[in-house]
Input
Amino acid sequence: MSNEAPQDAQTELAERPLSFAPGLLKGKVVVVSGGGSGIGRATAWMAVRLGASVVVCGRSEEKLLTVAEAMRERRLDGDFEVVDIRERARVEKAMQNIWDRHGRVDLLVNSAGGQFPQAAIDYSEKGWNTVINTNLNGTWHMMQQAALKWRETATGGSIVNVVVVPQGLHGVAHTCAARAGVIALSQSLSVEWAPLGIRVNCVAPGAIRTEGWTVYSEEARSKYPATNPLMRAGTPWEIAEAILFAGGPTGGFINGEVLTVDGGGQHWGEIWTTGKPEYYARATRLWDDSAR
Output
């Protein structure tokens, strides 16, 4: 879990070494939902430092303004747009505003989302709908509005949707369901929208150390580094590298794919956001005892 003050985080992202060639995204416009924090913020910073004009989107004007102003202070082209992605009409207006100011969009990164750890059997109707509306419906609204503008302007573009690691993630069934929907949607649209010059891909992070860790218990977080064979949590910067690789010019022939970035955890580990139930912990202890 990060304890950095917001400005400290901006400084770190502004100075961290880049893996891509300078100017890789020069002349491009990159829109990042959920750009006020975590993976979205890291992606926005990497893109703007690679020469792109970047628009961070989200519900919190304060967070977005902090990111955009920190970019502008360094003479980088940072912009923001306040939008609730759950509301189609607001997304439509926001996308039009972005096009009016920047004249185009080349890459849309859907990083916005949210969930809370809880046993699925105890979900309320409101809790379930909130996660589905944000993670699935919100992502769709952003994708569709961008695609409509690309069709209207006959320009084409690229979309990268941030989903979740496809195996071994427990205690957040609502977001697993929503993100599985995003994956299926992305794979379908990668075919349907290809004639429009639109590529659609997904990046699936494993255990990543962000501010969002605060919704999970300290006990659960302490075990996250052991959920993959590299024995560490990932960083938002590492996910940003995967996003811009798949979505940028380096990924020009990548379409309809899910790039899993979890340190190999899907082949070996498991992530229990609510703590491992005794039912399964007992089986693990028996396995460990038999190996001695």
